[in-house]
Amino acid sequence: MKAIVASDYGPIDQLSYADWPEPVAEGRTVVIEAEVIGVNFPDGLLVQGLYQMKPPTPFVPGMEVAGRVVAVGDRVTSFKVGDRVASVSAMGAYAEKVGAHEASVMKLPDAISAADACALLCGYGTSHHALKQRGQLKPGETLCVLGASGATGVAAVQIGKAMGATVIGVASSEAKRQVAKDAGADVVLGYENLKDALKDATDGKGVDVAFDPVGGEAFDALSRSMAWNGRLLVIGFASGTIPKLPVNLTLVKGYSLVGVFWGAFTQKEPAVYAENMRELVGWHLAGKVKPVIEGVYPLADAPAVLQRVLGRGATGKIVLKP
User: What Pfam families does the entry give (predicted)?
Assistant: First the structure.
């Protein structure tokens, strides 16, 4: 079968579209023929050796796949050949077929498209966990979302509205701010003079919960814009700069800095993760959240697509198709 292969750690353009061994259905392995494959920011970090995890090379990157089951191992009890499913794992998804552990696979209702299913896994899963468990967002609170036109940002905007918050979306261009507004943001802002803009937008009260996948100077503005008892959520560093926090700000302003690592959460708290996914699927079926799918690209185009995602040029979710 064909797959995107990282032969060694290095620039994204060194990825190859090459032959790769097909997965074997043994034990609790479910083999999925990919209909679509989700693209995520960490995929690009992983192949460059910049992510928390560093698997031995060569390897196939990719976290999300949706498609149909074509084979199951002899210990699989929850799935059969022909089932429509989605799966999330640390890597291996950029391929025509994916072998996934039974515990990482979920059945898909017919009403959910394969592309939407991929978006609901990592992007919406991260944002949901961030706002629900880590941020403990409450109805009536003010949520600020940086990178509000990206995959996790759009998800955070929609989930924030579903949870009853007033949402401020921050994005770098007028077109991206329109994406955030269309996703449901009550207020949209740019990054220029963000501290002053947030003060005006919150009538001086500050932000109750801040969702930050960007880092850099935007984090610095957020760290000075938090409300009393606020929660500043650290999601990632798409700007390329890991900021430093003057911790005296958390003391005098009385807010908390909270780390969000969705991948570890899914492993350490699988029951809570499963309940989160049930809630997200329910919200999707009820029309409360709806992924923005920017485009569908051939699997062979994965390197170019990843370059654009890491360059913060994408809006919404991008998926690959074998």
Answer: ADH_N, ADH_zinc_N
What distance in Å separates the CA atoms of residue 307 and residue 252, rounded to the nearest whole number? 41
Give the Cα separation of 322 and 315 in Å (integer).
Answer: 22
Integer CA distances (angstroms), 303 to 3, 37, 43, 56, 60, in order: 12, 14, 10, 20, 12
SS3 for 156? Answer: helix
CATH of domain 123-263: 3.40.50.720
Read off the tokens for 129: 């966990």
Higher-confidence position of 74 and 53: 74
d(CA 61, CA 3): 9
35 by Cβ neighbours in 10 Å (0-12 / 13-18 / 19+) ranks as buried
Nearest by Cα to 96 from 310, 298, 313: 298
Cβ neighbours for 285, distance < 8 A, ≥ 6 positions apart = 109, 111, 112
The pTM assigned to this predicted structure is 0.90
CA distances, 185 to each of 18, 22, 220, 288, 312 (Å): 42, 44, 22, 13, 20
Q: What is the spatial distance between Cα 280 and Cα 109, in angstroms, rounded to a whole number?
A: 13
Q: Over range 293-307, report the average pLDDT.
A: 95
Q: What is the CATH number of domain 2-108+292-321?
A: 3.90.180.10
| Distance (Å, whole) CA 156 – CA 175 | 18
Token output for 28: 């609790």
Residue 316, pLDDT score:
83
Indicate the length of the chain as a whole number: 322
| Distance between CA atoms of residues 311 and 4, nearest Å | 20
- pLDDT tens figures, 239-296: 889 999 999 999 999 999 999 999 899 989 989 999 999 999 999 999 999 999 989 9
User: Are 258 and 234 within 8 A, CB to CB?
Assistant: yes
Residue ranges per domain, the chain? 2-108+292-321, 123-263
pLDDT in tens, 101-110: 999 999 999 9
